[in-house]
Write a structure and sequence with these properties.
The chain is mainly α. Among the domains are: about 170 residues, Alpha Horseshoe (Serine Threonine Protein Phosphatase 5, Tetratricopeptide repeat); about 100 residues, Serine Threonine Protein Phosphatase 5, Tetratricopeptide repeat. Helices cover about 45% and strands about 0% of the residues. Helix 3 runs parallel beside helix 5 and helix 12 runs parallel beside helix 14. The longest helix has 25 residues. The chain is globular.
Length: about 425
């Protein structure tokens, strides 16, 4: 009996490896030859959960249709496929799992539910789908309404739906009131922190529509047949070269034929970040709307795509990144944030957009209010908004190091070679 099932187990291990490599054709082939779908990886994820975690909806839907698959299989941390699909915004997969009887209110070992994960990652459509399907809005330890992401503009419908169903805020941890008695750790000295917050800024403007050429590229990518990983990597390198040349039509064509968007250039920038730093909003928006793209991918200096878009004043790209859950308060290796980049480059509209979206005006190191450009007439509204949010200056902190570029790298290399030649000549003359 063991020898009969051994090939299926081996195929199951191959399936897990193919999912990790995001090789969709190989995954579907292995599912078709009866690979064992119950084999688990080191984290305890079976094939279905792993496909959801790696954002492979085509593979996940194929596995769901297989008879005998365990819909609610849990991994070592108690996470179910429904939780993974919800955390990745895979709405069709969520619908298929619910139609097969997935437990919509399952709670993992940390007290989180599928609804919590959808709200935590700002997937409004998935969260609304779970709420309409009857998800308990107060299940688990961590309440969806207590998440800061629920206060984002694009999550307004989700927040209204949660409140309409009696959702409670908080994480499930009961904290003592400010100024409580002894033993709480919060005595009368904590009372001044109960001061009211400043009045909110006006609501954010609606998201701009996706440009027709970018929308066509995203649609073409969805319809394009799968290609081999090697071919996708080669196309990804071509995409980086087209971005450097600022060849927008070629960039959109490569996005549409499934170029690998995770390929990085020498500074560590993937296609999305590189398009932002090169001020190509149309290309950036097309990449943002492609499924599976890493929104907060960092380069060698810790810069994220949001920082590049903020530095270049690409407000529509900033709005799209935030709608996809970009970390608005991410910090570079030097300590700069997206808001600091916008202020340092005098991008007033983008800086106001970030402030209105809830950016931290007092990061640890580089304070936006300390930027010399904030005192310019064109940044008066930004300075007022920063002060209204309690921003503090930091005159001692200078600007972060300039981002490396190919030109700077070549210039530094030439300077180093000149210094070496001068040193050799000096030594010869001394002899």
């Amino acid at each position: 009996m063991e020898s009969r099932h051994a090939p299926a187990v081996d195929l199951g291990s191959q399936l897990l490896a193919a999912i990790g490599a995001k090789n969709v054709p190989e995954c579907l082939r292995l599912v078709g030859v009866r690979a064992d779908l119950a084999v688990k990886d080191w984290a305890g994820d079976a094939a279905l959960a792993r496909a959801c975690n790696f954002s492979l909806p085509e593979v996940a839907l194929a596995i769901i249709e297989c008879p005998g698959v365990e819909i609610d299989a849990r991994n070592n941390s108690g996470t179910t496929p429904l939780m993974y699909a919800s955390s990745k915004g895979l709405t069709p997969v969520v619908a298929a799992l619910l139609s097969r009887g997935a437990d919509i209110n399952a709670v993992n070992n940390n007290g989180r539910t599928a609804l919590h994960w959808a709200c935590r990652n700002s997937y409004a459509a998935t969260a609304l789908q779970l709420i309409e399907a009857g998800a308990d809005v107060n299940a688990g330890r961590y309440k969806p309404l207590g998440l800061p992401e629920v206060d984002k503009r694009e999550m307004a419908a989700v927040k209204a739906a949660l409140l309409a169903r009696g959702a409670a805020a908080g994480t499930g941890l009961v904290l003592p009131p400010l100024g409580a008695g002894a033993g709480t750790g919060l005595g009368p000295r904590a009372a001044p922190f109960a001061a009211p917050l400043p009045p909110p800024l006006p609501p954010l403007p609606p998201l701009p529509p996706l440009p027709p050429a970018a929308a066509a590229a995203v649609a073409a990518r969805a319809r394009a047949p799968p290609i081999s990983p090697a071919a996708a990597t080669a196309l990804g390198s071509q995409l980086l070269a087209a971005i450097e040349a600022e060849n927008v039509p070629e960039c959109l064509r490569l996005v549409g034929v499934r170029a690998d968007l995770a390929v990085k250039e020498w500074t560590g920038d993937a296609a999305l970040a590189y398009a932002c730093w090169r001020s190509l909003p149309e290309v950036s928006l097309a990449i943002i709307y492609c499924p599976g793209v890493e929104i907060d991918a960092r380069d060698n200096n810790g810069n994220t795509p949001l920082m590049g878009a903020s530095s270049k004043g690409l407000t529509p790209v900033v709005a799209a990144l935030l709608s996809r859950g970009a970390d608005i308060n991410a910090v570079t290796n030097a300590g700069a944030t997206a808001l600091y980049w916008a202020c340092a480059r005098s991008q007033a509209a983008t800086a106001l957009h970030l402030i209105e979206a809830g950016a931290n005006v007092n990061p640890v190191k580089f304070k936006p209010l300390s930027c010399p450009n904030v005192d310019s007439p064109g940044m008066a509204a930004v300075k007022a908004a920063l002060l209204a949010r309690g921003a503090a200056g930091n005159p001692a902190a200078g600007p972060p190091a300039r981002r490396n570029s190919r030109r700077n790298g070549r210039r530094n290399g030439r300077a180093s070679r000149r210094n070496v030649r001068k040193t050799r000549k000096t030594r010869k003359s001394r002899r």
